[in-house]
Amino acid sequence: MSPSAAKPPLIPITLPQPDRFTGQMKVTNWLIDIGDEVIAGDRLLEVLSPGILFIVDAPVDGRLKEIVVPVDGSLTATTTLGWIEPAVDS
């Protein structure tokens, strides 16, 4: 396999500024499906923290490869929520 054909590593989807969140949180809705293409900044999912509902955005351009925490799944500030396969420049 040539180096140009190697796939880039997957990028984790995590909470922005994890130090701002404490305690248990819950995924309330994934706004995209596995395989969907995203652009950095696109809204991916909704997370409920005690008293606050917020959106997690895509960290990079690419395609949603895996959902780690499903709807109604619990998470902490450092949990990986899913994985994005980054877009490859042609």
UniProtKB/TrEMBL annotation:
Domain (Lipoyl-binding): residue spans on this chain: 13-81
Pfam families: Biotin_lipoyl
Transmembrane segments: none
Entry-linked SUPFAM superfamilies: Single hybrid motif
InterPro entries: Biotin_lipoyl, Single_hybrid_motif
Lineage: Bacteria, Pseudomonadati, Planctomycetota, Planctomycetia, Planctomycetales
Protein name: Biotin-requiring enzyme
Coiled-coil regions listed in the entry: none
